[in-house]
Amino acid sequence: MSPSPDSKTTPNALVRFARKLYHPLGFSKGYNFTLWFVFGGALLGFVLARLQYLSLTSRFCPATPANDGSTGLPSACYWVTQFPRYKVAMGLHLATSLPGALLAVFQFVPAIRHRYILYHRIAGYAAVLLMVIANAGAMMLADTAMGGDLVTQTFIGLVGLGTTATFGLALYNIRRQQLDQHRAWMLRTWFYLGFIITLRLIQALIATVLTNLPGGTTAPRPDHHAPHALMSCPQLLYVFAHNATALHRAFPVCAPANAALLHAQDGVVPVPARLGPDRAENAAALEVSFAAAGSLALALHAVGVEVYLRLTGAEEDRLRRVSWERQRARGFRNPGSAGLVRDRVGDGVPWVTREEEGPVVAEGKGGDGSSAEGVVGAEDGKRGGEDVLGMLA
């Protein structure tokens, strides 16, 4: 029996139910709502779970460090609790990155952009400012974060300076009314910053692999040695919750007889990197795996956002035409290419608008057949499609 003509256009009960959920939020396409729900929800959950850490000395770095993952890494908290510089830096980082990320989640809800355009603009600038300050705090911590080795410092600097630069590119393009490039750079920046969640998943995986290598928790072999992290005796004493007896038993070199090493910051002890009941070894496993996990996570996010941008060329073209209209109305030279576009800064094919097609239609059909409108940028009062991958974690 052949389907009726209306069966191809009439949505089933599941689609109708889903639309009742996402249409009030301003989404016109089911896949956009799904992406926002998954990735935005992950970022929202990550932020909400860590708001408790704004209480720096009682929740994030208590006097007695926990070994269940409910607090900050004990080896890092030693620096925060003992040195004012790192306490200020960590407080600055947490107090700005968490609110900034929280604002970003709701920046991608179309209903908010449609109805509260001024809020969208103010919140956008606030989120950028907060994240730039958070980057500064992170770079202040770089020389001790996760062991503070050269690779880790370089990686933290790359992320901090890189995302600050891409925020600048996004803001420059919106000031020039180049909406397509503003969209692209904002998506890239938040996509890059979202690596911190993926990092934790990869970091746990790498630490588990290191633990199960020969020389980890298994019987050591002469040609295999477990990776080690370097920690000072005062740092280890904090990690062991100031239990000197337990410290001396695990690391005899930190015994009172070695008073010079026991109180020296520049004397270090190799700590095996493996997961288990030992606080110091747990911390070492996470420190050793941080740079590798961060590099992989950042690479995945960088590739993922470029794939998304390539797959949404129609939205880029629509925003380019909106940019042309706005730039021409405001008297910009080279309307359509007043921002940082390929044909202006490189050897891209010159962009030419097709005026005979008339102005860009503000309202159209969404991917699921529904009519929709959306805000095209922080400075755009017109309506268009939604982008949700900017908060991918």
Automatic annotation (TrEMBL):
Note down the stretches annotated as region Disordered.
356-393
TM segment ranges: 30-49, 88-110, 122-142, 154-174, 190-210
InterPro entries, per database record: DUF2306_membrane
Q: One matching Pfam family, short form? A: DUF2306
Keyword entries, A-Z: Membrane, Transmembrane, Transmembrane helix
This protein's name: Uncharacterized protein
This protein's species is Macrophomina phaseolina (strain MS6)
